[in-house]
């Protein structure tokens, strides 16, 4: 219940969140006692302000700033820079306006704030008004356009630069690679006035991110000078591709190794689920820092070895917030929310990541309660926070909450963030508001594959297959490569509309044209497509050709199709396969029993039910949610615990009568 966190209704929550995002200089309970710490040393004041802003405590920074006996240019720039980092664009503008002397540094900081908030026109206008621009200012304008997905504009500014440095070339080359424009990146690299190691490393890192091993190898061989970053990048490149033998060769050939080199190799083994070799590297390391310990611990967690992670945590000579968050993630990953909550409460400090991790473990009203608590304790929700809680609203179909969070997203300056906006697209889609999803999609200036997938999925889930196909074509035309999720939504669209030929074409295309190996869900979707179209025999033949280790969910899907079309013979085959792989799945046993009952085979149905009873199997109870006046209520089948159950049943009877008549 939302009243548990002191909120009476959704309006008061909205007011609190709005106040949180728009208070330019609120008082803070965490502010130090200035009467005890007052000093005339301006360096002390500037350091205290910088520390507060680095910790996200904007309120304390404001209080310190206003209490200062005197200020210098460093003070103003510290304040402006910190507000920019904390995405307080309006506050940054306020400080800039109050500054007695403005220089190229302060103007560049405000330009960056505008660009990060999606106010790219304002950023450009400010840039044009700067009388003497240095290379940092030019780089900031290029980065601003890149941040807002405007590569052509970024290139125009880049080409107009009177002087370029290593950062300039690296920014532009990296931007092309992040947008998968490899040829453009290569051409620009060839035009670089100097082939410094840092510029080569930028291209090398881009090849690594894109998995272009051949290009990375060629560049690495051609480099006149390599530094430790170059070698470490090649280790990561090989390990991403699963080529750990080559990664080890690079590691052994390195003239000098640093702690990052050891950690990169260890992380490579972890990425490829080779825990033993990762542990061997960890123990052989001459020096370890907290990041190394955290990496090994995260490897244990990701591979479901929470006990080993806890032992490592206990042995750590030094821990940081990441260490605590890693164990928290382990509990959430195991769905042990009671232990996760206890761990969270005993943490010496918490970050936005801590809150986001705990919230992500809940899929009910508790997630919304935690989000409110997070805000009340002074934590500023970031992209992860909003993405997680909006996803919860989607699963609960809590439109009221979703709209409120949409408003908060805009006020917090994340209205151009692809991750957050993708969550909003999905939320409106789950609530059945396709037009709202489309409006959000159109507002995103910097789209990524996830954004496109979210909108394609919206059309697919609501039966608008033609629109999904059309948007997929636009995605390709705009230079985005589809991934596994893209093709899964396309196959779902085909399944919902019975478009067998189109579905088969997409299934072939993902392998032939995009080199994507189908996952279990793709195979299951193809079985569903054939089954829904009445082609149960073809669905059976298709299932038999699936690699054995990926067949389980496909047999489950085939079983559902057999039940729907009354094909008992194939249903028995599918049932045997399912029960062989999942003997403890009560839901599957229930489905098989129902299939027998539908054909009048009561003895068979009863024998399955008796087997469930003897082995203690139960079908997991289904649960539904509904939002009523800002509060999310849950209920299960045959739930009669509500004090107004008689009134509810009477109203349902009335509605049923009206619908039938």
Automatic annotation (TrEMBL):
PPR repeats: 72-106, 134-168, 196-226, 227-261, 289-323, 448-482
Lineage of origin: Eukaryota, Viridiplantae, Streptophyta, Embryophyta, Tracheophyta
Organism: Canna indica (Indian-shot)
A GO BP annotation: RNA modification
Record PROSITE patterns: PPR (PS51375)
The protein's name in its UniProt record: Pentatricopeptide repeat-containing protein
Glycoprotein found in the keyword field: no
GO molecular function term, any single one: RNA binding
Secretion signal span: none
Classification via InterPro entries: E_motif (IPR046848), PPR_At4g14850-like_plant (IPR046960), PPR_rpt (IPR002885), TPR-like_helical_dom_sf (IPR011990)
Highest taxon of source: Eukaryota
One Pfam assignment: PPR
Alphabetically ordered keywords of this record: Repeat
